[in-house]
Amino acid sequence: MVESSTNAVVAGIDLGGTKTTVVLCRRDGSIAAQATIATPAREGGAAMSAAASGLVKEMESSSGLHALAVGVGAAGVIDQKAGVVTAASASFKDWAGFRLAADLSARVGVGVVIDNDVNAFLRGEMAYGALIGCTDAVGIMLGTGVGGALALNGSVFAGPRGAAGEIGHTPGFGALPCSCGQQGHLETLASGRSIALRYTERSGRAANGAAQVADFARAGDPHALATFDAAGRALGQAIVTTATILDVQDVVVGGGVRGAWDLIEPPLAKMLEHNMPVSGYPLIVHPGSLGGSSAVLGSAAAAWESLAHSPELANTMKVGSSC
Ligand SMILES: [Zn+2]
């Protein structure tokens, strides 16, 4: 086996709205170097790409390692094949339409693959986290919003417009306004921002994010408990629907609200218990195990996959079989 291993690394980049994290990562997922800088989101795509590539080069020179390829998980809707950001939130300047893969590749001098950050999260959990060995899975990020991703037959399935698995914007959960402009989406009950809003509506008491609502719930506040109950049941319903249609058994949940797993999991489990899939195989919902590193490690995994056809590295590649 050509285990050029200990010194062979790729770079994984998690390019978010406020910060950009880079890891130099070995094939086994171990991290040789890691650093984080502020994302210059208001300065445009070229500035974000320059900042990320600058950090990669700095880490290469201080570690003496050279990244063989680069994977990026970025906020926004990403056309993975074209290597282009197709849509982005208003907090980014000149991001939609930016040819990120080509620009970054010219700066770092190796191949670059890009994907959205939720797909990167799922890929990370499958490669190195809670879903090692899984070939089919749903990934859900409960953060400021609710992001979703799908993996089928061992690959992340992005869909023709890069929007497959967008479970946060599925309807049927009441009539509250969603961040996307529509109403009644899962996100209106289960995102971190929504949990704080729903709690304040119920209690008349302000809450500084879902983590604080979780503290209130653990102290016995009935409004906070009811808010998490509604979030967990809605999440369970969306999971049952998605998994039933796709015959997917494994689901991984990450994002900031993952920190309230003790409160989300009981109502979620109850919903799953009462809605067994027709396959007869119970759904398994895994809390993510990589914490804030899932997207950056998933981006590194994508970079390793991009090298899979490289003959001298082929022996170090391993494709997951089944959970
Ligand atoms: Zn929505």
UniProtKB/TrEMBL annotation:
InterPro entries: ATPase_NBD, ROK, ROK_cs. Keywords: Kinase, Transferase. Pfam families: ROK. One of its GO terms (molecular function) is kinase activity. Belongs to the ROK (NagC/XylR) family. This is Glucokinase. It comes from Arthrobacter alpinus.
